[in-house]
Design goal:
single chain, elongated, alpha/beta, 7-stranded mixed β-sheet, 2 domains, 8 helices, 294 residues, 4-stranded antiparallel β-sheet, Rossmann fold, 36% helix
Amino acid sequence: MKVKEKPVGTKAQIRAMEEREGRRALTVAIALLIIIIFVSGFIIYSTFYSSSEEDALPEPTLQFRPTNFNPELKATVVDQLSLTAPNEAFVQEVASILTEANYTVDYYGGEKVTVNFYRNLPTGGYELLVLRVHSAPLFEDDKEIPIIDLFTSEPYSTSKHIPEQINHELVKAFYYEGSPEYFGITPAFIKNRMKGTFNNATIIMMGCDGLKYNSTAQAFIEKGAKAYISWSGPVSANHTDVTTVHLLQHLLIEKCTIREAVIQALVNVGGPDPTYKSILKFYPFEGKPYWIEK
């Protein structure tokens, strides 16, 4: 005898649909919870650990030692520009001047110049720092703001150095529209994230616009530097290279004051940058006869 199946009523159908929807909703909720836990864990890790991945400066690319070694006289050449505008003759000339003045010189090629490199830069104990790096003003809503960022060679990523990005201590830097993007450090990074102090060091920042505004210079001074030398606007790589060689010759070999050395270096190269009309300046400008020696 064939038994007829009892038809499913409307209420039963609705209940079954609700159960299915409930299971789907629970599945989605669990998936979202897993994603939230994963993202939260990543942010927490980035906040507390990613900034501490490297706790010391890397080994220099090259080191130049003087005949009369003096452990207290240390200088560095940070050559981020070597990746886009290499100048081996400049490196050799600068190393020759510095070693003649009894400095041990740590040379860092562009591939070494990361965010964490800058973070640890004061720990090197350098009395003189030559920063051959790209630099540029920041823009906000297509308007230039009075902040200069120094380029790293570390590719930009939204998932790295998150606290520093949130605090605008790191920014996106690029050479021109459509070019690769890198991290750039701001004056806030210098003041808040760099470890230690510069202990009366002299900073020669060879990049563009380094003293168009005083914010970067002031950040280095607040971090312990004695003096900061840079350009009033854009400058070509060749012009800053030649001028810096003359500047170091006057500072270290002829023992000129920073004021005298800056003036003489500009005289040697025929004045401002021939294309951009920028001049070499120093900060703070207080009329004092700064010497390199402590």
